[in-house]
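Researcher: Go.
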Amino acid sequence: MTVRPSALALTPLLLFLALFFGAGLYFTTQGEPMGFYQLRAPVAILPALALAVWLAHRRGLAAGELLLRGMGDPNIVLMCLIFLLAGAFAYVSSAIGAVDAVVSIGLSAVPSALVLPGLFVLSGLIALAIGTSMGTIAAVVPIALGVADASGLAPALVVGTVIGGAMFGDNLSIISDTTIAATRTQGAQMRDKFRENVRIAVPVAVATAVVLGVLGAASPIDAEPIGSPWLMAPYLLVLALAVAGVNVLVVLALGIVLAGAFGLVFTDDYGPVAFVGDIWSGFEGMTEILLLSLLIGGLGALTKAGGGLAWLALAIERVARGRRGRRAGEFSIAALSTTADVFTANNTVAILVSGSVARDIAEQHGISPRRAASVLDIFACVAQGVLPYGAQILLAASLSAVSPLALAGSVYYCWMLAIATIVFIAWPRRSADAGPQVPAP
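Model: Structure:
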């Protein structure tokens, strides 16, 4: 059945964004440091769902069935299961001291002449391993501030370096919720998306490290290695198996078991009871994003059935001047992802909100799923890394007492990544990702 395009079907999504963004602005103006996290997204989406159900009912659609079908979509359920396992792996790894071991061993290996590049690379590796930029910032910023004091470097520059490294690693990590959301919404394999991102992110990271090396100065780092180097093994195994193409559920399950086993061997007072308790704590930490994923799935199904996505696709076509092909499609996905993140101040939420539309755009413009997932994730990462009211900068600002605006201007990696990706999209090339450039009649 052909779906008639309707702008009205998009109003529930706009209502959700208005509530979430409006509440964030209100609480921020009231002096709340984490204003955008006072109204939780799974609660903000409930009025939007009610409106979507009402609009679908008015059009004679089976609203309840559509809602449940969208929430129970196999891709949504699989994504939720991956979220749970990723949360458990991250929590168990942290509980056994693996994060502390990575930080201390990494810092002890950084030459004094390469303080800023070293902090950037270390932050990237930690975020790549644990799959969260927030956890990386919380672990590394306090140490980075000591480096800034000892070296005389500007705190904003040092902390901005950590944020950039954290966003670099988070964007590539196969256990990051943004990676999971981007690959599942676009129907891409994590291995393929990882390889696609590496083509852009790694050269930008190298260029960023060079710039930071010029801006930095020699500084001693007083850090003694703590914990066993073996505690890093679960991270390395998960990364290697994921890149090798092993099913992500198997990868994460093996990672959890291995992390628990290494904790039993190398960590004092860590036993089976603590292990199963940490798995549950990891599940709990993913409750919000799991609920939001289910509800977004239902809202997306109602929006699509009501013709909202069809109308948006037509609007994007008009903006692209009627041209089909890789460039128009990728720029459309980039703009969609960036706009969604600006309004939600949460890159995972932005990807979930815009994922269905991005997939439709990719199909219409001949863009492969791995490329669509890469562009979607990169621009959500870019926007989130420089938003003064985003969680990453707010957390870093609270730890360092540095202005969020000053930090936003010091996250060189994200600014350079945005420029490089725009150039990469615009650059003419022939590949499996480039659809035929068909001019409008």
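Model: Residues 431-441 have pLDDT under 50 and may be disordered.
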